[in-house]
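Q: How would the C-alpha cells look for this protein?
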Amino acid sequence: MTQHLGNVFRYQLQPEGYESLEDPSVTVPTGTYHIGTVEGAEIGVWEAEPGLIRGVTDDEVFVVLEGRAEVTFDDTKETIQIGPGDVVRLNKGQRNTWRTIERLRKVSIWSESGS
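A: Here is the predicted structure in C-alpha cell form.
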C-alpha cells in the first residue's frame, strides 16, 4: 500500500455546478475529487471557474493551489481575498459568497459531522 495519494493537478475532477448569483440562468462550472478519509476527516480537491456563487460551509481547512477569489461571510460581513498558498479555516454552517476571479483549485480537509 502506498502513502502517495496522487497529484492534485492531475486528478480528473467530477463536474458540478453552482447557480450564478449574477445570472440565475447560468451555472458556474465547478468540480471535485474525493481523495480519501483520514480519522473521519474527508480530503479532496475542489475547483471553480470565474463567477459569483453562494454556499454553506462544513468544518474545513483548505490551501489554495492556484487562482484567486474573494469570499464574503454573511454572518461577519468579512471579505477575504485568497490566492496561491493561502490557508483558510471555514466554520460549519457559515453562509458565504465566492467571487472567483481566476480559476481556483484548492485541496481541503473537512468534516461534515463537525467531529
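The chain has no helices and eight strands.

Residues 14-111 form a domain with the Jelly Rolls fold (CATH 2.60.120.10).

Upvote if useful.
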